[in-house]
What does this fold into?
Amino acid sequence: MLAVVKAGPGPGFVVQSAPEPTLQPGWVLIRVRAVGICGTDLPIFEGVRAVPYPLIPGHEFAGDIVAVAEDVTEWQVGDRVAAGLVIGCGRCIMCRQGQENLCPDIREIGIHINGAFAEYVRAPASSLHRLPETMSYIDGASIDPVASTYRGIRRLAPQPHEHVVIFGVGPIALYALQSIRAAGVATLTVIARHGGIRTQTALALGADCVVESEHDDPAARVAEITHGTMADLVIEATGNPDVLSLLPMVCRPQARILLAGIFHHHAPFNPAPIVRRELRIEGTFCYNWMDFALSRDLIATGRVSPQCLVTHVLPLAAIGEGLTLLHQRAAIKVILTP
Ligand SMILES: [Zn+2]
Ligand SMILES: [Zn+2]
It folds into this structure.
């Protein structure tokens, strides 16, 4: 089969033929119909994030089941599915609580084991979710990034009277924006470094205000739109350490801050505003089975629309072009169709 292979450390990858995955008990084989390029894939391709080599990355996927292991009874060949990337050990205390995303022995499809930048991928039956008949494979491949923030949003439960600020305009930020809009809040402000198709999309998706921090003061603008009360809930969706110091500046006392970006670098951070204004900071990482199922339903009911974010659909072999578009910020979400 054709696959994108990260052969070793350092930057780069190759598109080459690779052996089809073999089945093991409890697993199914999926013909990949759509797979998204995720922000997490970029450091893997750049060699910034080490993975077990050789690896086929790709974890935001949907497709058709083409084979099932003998002991798998609840799925059949021909079923249209998406799979969560998280595979827990099934035995530790977090797995037993249904929090497999926090399993100390977590394995992730496309990060620790071969993923979906290929014609075929295998996944455990326990990680599968059925796509509604009307849901496209592209929407199915978009459940993963929706679930990645919906988990934290669900826990911090935005209220109708609350003012929300989102830092970032990447796919994670824009999916968070849609989920929060669906929940219904008083105002929603998005803060980006500079303008472009991403900030335009944020406005189109219902942001009340987009602040370009390069030439505007986020704190002043948030004060303006919230009539001085400042934000009740702040979502960090950039993963950029420089943003950390800005977060408390837009908060009201006792505000909640959700760290949803994946940070690859350390940053100095002043804890004084957290203490003095009793701010609450929480992280959120991946999702469990339920977060994924609920995110599928958000898409199925039209509350979250991946179509608004998917700017490019390319064949698998054009992955290099997709990565270039993402680096140039000319794309929001790139979907490959192997
Ligand atoms: Zn992802
Ligand atoms: Zn576990």
